[in-house]
Amino acid sequence: MLDPVRPGDVPDLTDFLRGADLTVAGLDAPAVRLWARRDDAGIAASAGYELSADGRHALIRSTAVRPDLRGRGAGLAAATFAVERAGESGAVTAWLFSRRSGPFWQRLGFARSTTDALAAALPDAQQVRLFRRTGQLDREVAWRLPLRG
User: Fold this and answer.
1) Residues paired with 38 in a beta bridge
2) Residue 12: how many CB atoms within 10 A of its CB?
3) Cα separation, 17 vs 28, whole angstroms
4) What is the DSSP letter of 122?
5) pLDDT value at position 70?
6) How far is CA 134 from the centre of its chain?
7) What pTM, to 2 d.p., does this model score?
8) Which of 57, 60, 94, 127 is a plausible cystine mate for 121, CB 3.0–4.6 Å?
C-alpha cells in the first residue's frame, strides 16, 4: 500500500528518485501528489502525478521501485495506483515522459504521443517547465492514456 508523502518525507523521496534516475523538480509543488511505500529498508516504491491548472490532465511522475523489488509487480501496482488516483481527481487524460520504459507503460494502455501535445496539455507542469528551460523537451518521449470519455 502506498501512503501519502508528507513534507518531511520529501528529502528521502528525492534521494530515492535520484537513485532511480528520475526527475525530482518540483516534488513539493502544490499541484504534485505523491505516495510512497516504505519497509524496513526505506522507501520501496513511489508514484505520483501533477494536475494541470484546469484539472483535466495529469502528468504521471515519480514512479519507481527499489531495485531489489523489481520484477515482482510492485512497479505495475504503483503505476496503476497513480493512474487511478489521477482519474479519481477528475483528470480525463494521463500523460508521462519516459525514454526508457515505454513497454512498461504500454502494458497500462499508454500510447506514444508528442512532447508538443503533452506540453500543450500541461504547460505549467514542473517537468515541462524544467525540460523547456534546459532544452531537453525535444529529446524526451511522451506517452498518453485517455482516462475517461
Assistant:
1) 43
2) 15
3) 14
4) -
5) 86
6) 19
7) 0.94
8) 57
C-alpha to C-alpha distances, 51 to 70, 82, 104, 125, nearest whole angstrom: 27, 12, 22, 8
Please check the confidence at residue 149 and state whether its pLDDT lies above 60.
no
Q: What is the pLDDT of residues 13-34, one digit of tens each?
A: 999 999 999 999 999 999 999 9
- Position 148 scores a pLDDT of 76
Instruction: Give the C-alpha separation, 60 to 95, whole Å.
Output: 6
Q: Which amino acid is at 92?
A: V
pLDDT of residue 3 exceeding 70, the answer is yes
Amino acid making up residue 20: A
- In angstroms, how far is CA 40 from the centroid of its own chain? 24
pLDDT grade for 79, boundaries at 50, 70 and 90: very high
Q: Which burial class, exposed, middle or buried, applies to 6 when counting CB atoms under 10 A from its CB (0-12, 13-18, 19+)? A: exposed
Residue 36 cell numbers, joined? 510512497
Domains in the chain and their CATH numbers?
A: 3-146 (3.40.630.30)
The number of residues in the chain equals 149
